[in-house]
Amino acid sequence: MSGTCLIISREDWSLHRKGEIDRQRHQEKVREAIKKNLADIVSEESIILHDGRKVIKVPIRSLEEFHFRFDAGRQKHGGQGDGKSKQGDVIYSEPQQGKGRGAGDEPGVDYYEADITVDELAEMIFEDLGLPNLEQKKKPEIASESVEFRDIRKKGITGNIDRRRTIKEVIKRNAMKGKPGLYGITPEDLRFKTWDLTYKYESNAVVLAMMDTSGSMGPFEKYIARSFFFWMVRFLRTKYNNVQIVFLAHHTEARETSEEEFFTKGASGGTRCSSVYKLALEVIKKRYSPQDYNIYAFHFSDGDNLASDNENCVKLINELLKVCNMVGYGEIEGPYYYASTLRNVYKRINDPKFTVVIIRDKSGVYPALKKFFAQIPDRQAN
Amino acid sequence: MGSKEDLYLLEKALEKITDKARELGLDFYDIYFEICPAEIIYTFGAYGMPTRFSHWIFGKAYHKMKTEYDYNLSRIYELVINSNPCYAFLLDGNSLIQNKLVMAHVLAHCDFFKNNIYFKNTFRNMVESMAAAADRFRSYEFKYGREKVESFIDAAIAIQEHVEPRPLNKNKKNDAEKVNAGKPDTPYSDLWALDEKDQDGGSTGNKAKMFPPEPEKDVMLFIIQNSKELEDWQRDIMSVIRQEMLYFWPQMETKIMNEGWATYWHLRIMREIDLDESEAIEFAKMHSGIIQPSRRRINPYNLGLNIFEDIERRWDNPGREEKEKYGRPGGEGKQKIFEVRATENDISFLRNYLTRELVEKLDLYLYKKVGFEWKIVEKNWEKVRDGLVSNLTNCGYPYIVVQDGDFNKRGELYLKHNYEGTELDVFYVEKTLPHVYTLWGRPVHLETVLNNKAVLFSYNGEKAEKKYL
């Protein structure tokens, strides 16, 4: 070809991963952004009611690249019609729900739907959570295998060379020959780390999930209670191999339910909270000896209890506190605020193992989780 | 396009296309064509250059391109890099006819890069230069930590558009200009200025009443030279980002022309080489996809192509008025389009050659947000033309200058937006100023206009403020 050099080639691009790596970094940053908004995301309906799909979409405004720019909503833009356009024609109109600042102020706002698995989300939510006051109980039921490096041998895999010990050997050997120093490593000096299979014993724990399903619990209250329990159950199953969960629902009477029923069935009628505490104590007595189990009890209600039952509740909570590592009471304050009788009487209980939270709206679920499952600092450290 | 035979066919086709292109008058650099998989093409698309440094914003762009590609919303067929030799990337999986079109298109881009005046000062070794910069950035990450480098890049990128692509005003008391006299114009010219600054730093005395003496459009350069906050590695990062912006600038300001030119030529060349029937159909489909107009934006391929064709037609067969008033003899179409491609940029291209007939034929308009609806607000051809031109001014970025580098006599940075009728995005202003603060290290201010009143946004490292002046 006359003068100009033109070359066509094909190279192996299989190692070229820059785009993917930076994409991952962007996603990491999106995750950070999600984390900052966990309180809102935790009670997203699409998650709580997700139909078993593994991946959910969390709507999040794309990470923005801020710079000085024009307000697109005040700018005139160019477009091209099909030959018949005239002044006043509507190019497009945008959905009219005002969603935050300026959203929709420009053509094609850049919303980023972060794909995230429920597990990933759970991991973020649970990062700082743990069962408080967890104790080693007598009879470990299940032990999980774990690998630990805790032996040093003279033979091994090169990748496992223990440099520090090898160097020590060299210095030691040289010192014994009267010429101390680090030189001349011989095969005999090499030391390798070797692993042992050990068993990691876990504490048994049982969690009693108690929910008020009486008529006064409206859709909002039930939704909040279920959101909480949804995450609690997931959290327990993710973090602990060895946790059992018992589901107890009550109105004036309490009964044990299956997990599915607990999350889906509604009920009605009056409220007698003591019924569920009584049932909880029975379940503990029959099936979960406090000697063998860490026991946790969480109760969610709107607090609208039979006034005559309140004293009884205080008494039973105190009973529960004797056998439980922790008792939590969550009260959902619905749109019709009134001074709750139950929460008020619980003010008299003065036990560090007893925790009360009040949830006023959807974003209160995450703080409730954090409060109930706060790790005690010195426990977290080890 | 997998096998050896395919490659052979492609080479044959390239030869034919090249001969045809040259016969028609195109003049291009050597070109390396690479066939690569889609991921690689959109990697390059996202970064603007295969060798550029790593950063999450490119990852975001990559993600977007990949998603659009995966969902078949868009398809990049090619990518050309303005260097000498040019690099062009062909999509693995393009059919032979697609590749023919792309190669013809690419040749015209290379011709444009080589001959358009705005590319005259392009740094032709940008591929290597970007690779070297990427390496240095990586070493900074090792030394100072990834987060630190990343967030500094965030800050630098926030003002990357505020450069001066070609300082025209020679009368400016600009140290850089004086020092540069007699020295070759290279991408490192500004370094001379750095030296100079240091030398007369003490002796400027009373002459430096105003600092800078005149409003400085190159905010990046001003900060690089005058920030007391920056460490060497940070100055380097800013300089690289500025240099890369200067490299991309001519491409941004000739987008309509360049795409129009390439489209004009792929059409022309493909018409002149023999295509069988099925090839002709596939070609027609692909071409019409490329020039598909959009109601919401101007398609540069379409508009550019139409203007070039119109120029050629009008100079080949001038109307009576054109003959009499401008003395056009006719038959000069080809000569004229080559002249236009050499001397104009998008702004002058539209201003000089977007005619009333074209605006009407293409049904161009301006639209604007009215309540919750985006409505056509302008059909008058001159206003449409002027509106399009004004959107292209400064490549569509607000024109911002450093007004005072020692505001309040406390070393604060005072930026001013040259308001020309369109307000800034206030939320973005408030989010961008902290980035400027990161670079400047002292309180920063931006003056602009809201509701016809001058307003000053400030950020002092802790809190943001807005007050009407």
Automatic annotation (TrEMBL), chain A:
Region of interest (Disordered), ranges: 73-108
Signal peptide as annotated in the record: none
Alphabetized Pfam families for the sequence: DUF444
Protein name per its UniProtKB record: Uncharacterized conserved protein
Organism whose genome encodes this protein: Pelotomaculum thermopropionicum (strain DSM 13744 / JCM 10971 / SI)
Automatic annotation (TrEMBL), chain B:
Superkingdom of origin organism: Bacteria
Pfam families: SpoVR, SpoVR_C
SpoVR protein-like N-terminal domain residues: 7-396
Boundaries of every SpoVR-like C-terminal domain copy: 398-449
Region (Disordered): 190-210
Name of this protein: Uncharacterized conserved protein
Organism encoding this protein: Pelotomaculum thermopropionicum (strain DSM 13744 / JCM 10971 / SI)
